[in-house]
Amino acid sequence: MLPILATIFVLLCLSIGGQRTAKSLISIFLNAFLLLILIFAVSAGLSPILACFFACTGIVFVTLFYQNGKNSKTEAALIAILVISLITAAISYAFVKFTAIQGFPIAQFEIQETNGYMRNIAVNMTAVQSIVILAISLGSVIDTAVCISSSLFEIHMRTKTLPKLELFWAGMNIGKNVLSSTVNTLFFIYVAEYLTLFLQFANNYSFLDMLNSKEFCQETSAILFAAIASILVIPICSAICAYRFAKR
Predict the structure, then answer these.
(1) CB–CB of 127/47 below 8 Å?
(2) How many C-beta neighbours within 10 Å does residue 179 have?
(3) In the 3-class helix/strand/coil scheme, how is the chain assigned residue by residue?
(4) Which of 8, 111, 117, 127 is the most buried if burial means most Cβ atoms within 10 Å?
(5) Per-residue confidence at 116, pLDDT binned at 50, 70, 90?
(6) Which of 2-6, 37-41, 109-113, 218-222 is predicted with the least confidence, judged by mean pLDDT?
């Protein structure tokens, strides 16, 4: 069934979106390939942080420059994404290390040596959990940055005398409209993906046990970091775009 669904998805994209959607599909395959390389590189012993740096850089370049082209809009978005990614990576690593939410949760009973699995995989799990948070945040950050930079570029091209401060506030207003849909999307993805986990909590955990469980903290913190990163990219991208566009 999965090949059939994938074929239907590709055909619908090509029939409705045309050439632009074809580039988007190629970008998805390239990004999936980069994530696959990331997994094998970490399992082979490469530093998770170093592997994540190269993989995320490749994903950003593919999504921005291959899919949207190299121009002032994508260059401004790139700077904002890099700034937010560095901030997210640093804070998430400190957060994971402080809260000790890395590694396999207790409820994952299948990850046991008696079941044939090896729990000690000789990988820095703090770094792994940090790059998981960064990877989840990256998609929403890219979408928000591209949306703001593209909108501000169009505003600048139509009103070239608009000063930097007004251009910045125009980006903030655009970000307010984008933010509600982004946060709602992240929330519904989280609820839908972990609905079975919530059912397990409802049957076997009290409310306080749920809040203190590693499973709940791992997933909730990742989504919250993605939402926070999507919020922070709005003023940063608006400021960068206002400076670069008005300067031109």
Answers:
(1) yes
(2) 16
(3) CHHHHHHHHHHHHHHHHCHHHHHHHHHHHHHHHHHHHHHHHHHCCCCHHHHHHHHHHHHHHHHHHHHHCCCHHHHHHHHHHHHHHHHHHHHHHHHHHHHCCCCCCCCCCCCCHHHCCCCCCCCCHHHHHHHHHHHHHHHHHHHHHHHHHHHHHHHHHHCCCCCHHHHHHHHHHHHHHHHHHHHHHHHHHHHHHCHHHHHHHHHHCCHHHHHHCHHHHHHHHHHHHHHHHHHHHHHHHHHHHHHHHHHC
(4) 127
(5) very low
(6) 109-113
Query: Is a pLDDT exceeding 60 seen at residue 52?
Result: yes
Q: What is the mean pLDDT of residues 93-114?
A: 65
Q: Which of 187, 182, 151, 146 is nearest to 168 (CA)?
A: 151
Contact 148, 174 (CB under 8 A): yes
Instruction: Give pLDDT, residue 158.
Output: 81
Distance CA 22, CA 222 (A): 30
Question: What does the pLDDT read at residue 111?
Answer: 54
Tell whether the model's pLDDT for residue 211 goes beyond 70: no
Q: How far is CA 89 from CA 57, 97, 114, 116, 200, in A?
A: 13, 12, 35, 33, 31
pTM: 0.79
